[in-house]
């Protein structure tokens, strides 16, 4: 069960209420869960995606450890250009898709 991080920017207050019911808000708009299961993470992202498709305001970024991904991180975004982790000679870079 990997660490999961959600970063929000300029979103409606409902996101904060929902996210704090599942995660710890460590800084304004930054939520962490040290051991969220893949099933909970999938349902969380589905709710956030559904809300964002209706409200269309702000941005959300979901980050979690995925050993099969480059850099062992997976990133999902809403309201921002997609980002991919790229290994450039041992240095991890975030590339906008």
TrEMBL record:
UniProt protein name: CRISPR-associated endoribonuclease Cas2
NCBIfam families linked: cas_CT1978
Keyword terms, alphabetized: Hydrolase
Gene name of this polypeptide: ygbF
InterPro entries recorded: CRISPR-assoc_prot_Cas2_sub
EC number per UniProt: 3.1.-.-
MF (Gene Ontology): hydrolase activity
Organism lineage string: Bacteria, Pseudomonadati, Pseudomonadota, Alphaproteobacteria, Rhodobacterales
Pfam families: Cas_Cas2CT1978
